[in-house]
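Subgroup meeting minutes
Present: P.N., E.W., G.H.
Scribe: E.W.

1. P.N. recapped why we're keeping a running log of single-chain structure predictions: easier to compare across weeks, and new members can see raw inputs and outputs side by side.
2. G.H. added today's entry (142 aa).
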Amino acid sequence: MLTIGTLARRTGTKVQTIRYYEQIGLMPEPGRTAGGQRRYGEAELDRLAFIRHARQLGFTLEAIRELLDLSDNPEKSCDEADQIARRQLRQVELRMARLEALRTELKRMVHECSGGNTADCRVLEVLRDHSECLTDHDEIGA
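Output recorded in log:
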């Protein structure tokens, strides 16, 4: 059996985060010693590693809850997991498109900067007036 500190170290998760996951029901209530210390087994270690990896891939807590439900019910269709992953992929692609638009705009701003005084600074000019932008980056992936 693992203490919460050991579980945290083995998964790279903060103790407070583990407690939060228990509070919101992603992690089950742990067993406790007679002194009230939390104790975790391999199943909890695996579940927390699953949650942590899903978070690293950008899944929302609600999507993780859905994925855990699927994992806990092996008779369910894999199509549901696939749909959740596809939804996450679409979100990542939208964010990437937005980041690319921001990158393009920032590169242009920096390139057009003459290095003179701030009264003629292209960076400040573009930041003041969104119509100076080449892309509508506020709408992409928002």
